[in-house]
Design brief:
- With 465 residues, the protein is α+β, with helices and mostly antiparallel strands.
- The chain contains 14 helices and 24 strands.
- Helices cover 38% and strands 23% of the residues.
- The protein has a six-stranded mixed sheet, sandwiched between helices. A five-stranded antiparallel sheet has the order 9-10-13-12-11.
- Helix 11 (282-290) packs across helix 12.
- The N and C termini lie far apart (87 Å).
């Protein structure tokens, strides 16, 4: 037991999971894993309390588990948190499986236990009357090395990508600090030491039920693999650390590519079609971009086909849409009204939209300009592509031609005495997130032609009849 305790402390330090003065809320089911975690924390002298979630799924056995964990807390002289859940009703109400329901319930409740402990550890300094928060409070779970192997296999079979190959992280933050300090230890070692040291624990009969995915992996798939590869578990545990290192390198490189590829503008993200098409690993890059917006792995191939589609084609997730807009792929939420904006590339000469047609021509600044509100003559040096043609919105502002002070578009439209219906038809053109033109009405002073201007971008607006 002393050797295990030393390795336990070494692992906590190596992974920087928590400090000796921190307070721990240990999730305890009554099984050997969580009981041994309590025993190790007790012998290490850590400050901790115990939290037991009773899901009331196994009748008298659930009641006996609760009584056992309460007795454990009393023996160790630590605080005992307990809550009984109507797990079946919750699962039915949410339309999810029992295991998923139990997971949601316990992790949400662990957060409550942590908050309660945290609030009681916050004291007031009598001299300064200032609140002083004592060392952090973490939730601990008793996941071990065997759980790592099972999780890696399940993630691999489910196709979760390189993230899944890391299996279970030693520390994570599901809304609060959580650590798993037993990931270094095998289950058979915990069982052996518990028996050698007369440490009692509860056996959960449902752990043998192969209707649950993890149990099927544990009792059927892994033994079948071991029959061919006897050292598969040791090899997989060695690989998990390699996968973690590979993942760090992967995500560092990925972020650089995403930063160079993605152009963010208000509620949308734009990806240049030609630039993405030239990347050899474009499927993986697009998958990593889209997964953040609710797209599935299967939808990545659909999205890739947009590279060769016409403008207007799209693929939707539950929350977002990626669509082809001329030379761009655009990601937006449906309520951002992507039909109310168009991207204009530097080689576009003519663009049609709901209110008419825009024609663009670049020529010498010496060609002259006129005061026709349907024409915008801009200093080409100030233009950043792509231009964004969109409907105006509350909060927009620009510097009207001839003025050095900014003015809100809403105020400008009031001054123009436009009706509500007319205001709804007003569009603006942006360059580099700056409005350059209230289309058909007024140019922005910052983009006007100057004596030093050499090239002019002339934009003509032809309204619909």
């Amino acid at each position: 037991m002393d050797k295990l305790l030393q390795r336990f402390l070494q692992y906590i330090r190596a992974e920087n999971l928590f400090a000796p003065g921190d307070h721990l809320v240990i999730a305890v089911s009554g099984g050997v894993d969580s009981v041994m975690l309590c025993e190790l924390c007790h012998r290490a002298g850590f400050s901790f309390s115990i939290a037991h979630a009773n899901f009331q799924l196994r009748g008298e056995d659930s009641t006996a588990d609760e009584a056992f964990v309460q007795a454990l807390a009393e023996r160790l002289q630590v605080r005992f948190h307990v809550r009984r859940f109507d797990t079946l009703s919750y699962a039915k109400e949410k339309g999810i499986g029992i295991q998923e329901a139990a997971r949601e319930l316990r992790y949400a409740w662990f957060a409550e236990c942590r908050e309660q402990e945290l609030s009681e550890l916050t004291v007031t300094d009598k001299r300064n009357v200032a609140p002083v928060t004592l060392p952090k409070v973490l939730v601990l779970t008793a996941h071990h090395a065997d759980d790592q192997v099972e999780t890696l296999l399940m993630n691999f079979f489910k196709g979760t990508g390189i993230r899944g190959l890391q299996a279970i992280s030693p520390a994570s933050a599901p809304g609060y600090p959580l650590a798993r300090p037993l990931l270094f230890c095998r289950k058979d070692e915990l069982l052996r030491l518990a028996k050698e040291n007369n440490i009692s624990f509860r056996e959960d009969a449902s752990n043998a039920n192969t209707d649950y995915t993890r149990n099927a992996v544990r009792h059927q798939i892994i033994p079948a693999i071991k029959a061919v590869f006897p050292h598969v578990e040791e090899n997989m545990l060695d690989n998990i650390q390699r996968f973690r290192d590979i993942s760090d390198l992967y995500h560092t490189a990925l972020q650089k590519i995403k930063d160079s590829l993605m152009e963010k503008d208000r509620e949308t993200i734009r990806i240049p079609v030609l630039k993405l098409a030239k990347i050899p690993s474009r499927r993986t890059i697009l998958f990593e971009i889209l997964r953040e917006f609710g797209f599935t792995t299967a939808q990545t191939d659909e999205a890739l086909r947009l590279l060769h589609s016409e403008t207007g084609k799209f693929v939707s997730s539950g929350t977002h849409r990626i669509f082809r807009n001329r030379n761009w792929l655009v990601i937006s939420a449906p309520d951002s009204n992507e039909q109310s904006q168009l991207l204009i590339a530097d080689d576009d000469k003519k663009v049609s939209f709901s209110e008419g047609v825009i024609e663009l021509t670049e020529l010498s600044a010496q060609s002259g300009w006129d005061n026709n509100p349907l024409h915008a003559c801009l200093d080409a040096r100030e233009i950043v592509y792509p231009l964004l043609l969109r409907k105006w919105k509350a909060g927009d502002y620009f510097y009207p031609l001839g003025m050095d002070k900014k003015k809100k578009i809403s105020r400008f439209l009031v001054d123009q005495k436009l009706s509500l219906a007319e205001k709804e038809k007003v569009w603006v053109m942006e360059s580099g997130k700056r409005i350059v033109w209230v289309v058909g009405m007024r140019l922005d002073n910052r983009f006007r032609l100057r004596p030093s201007s050499e090239r002019m971008l002339r934009i003509h607006f032809q309204p619909k009849p």
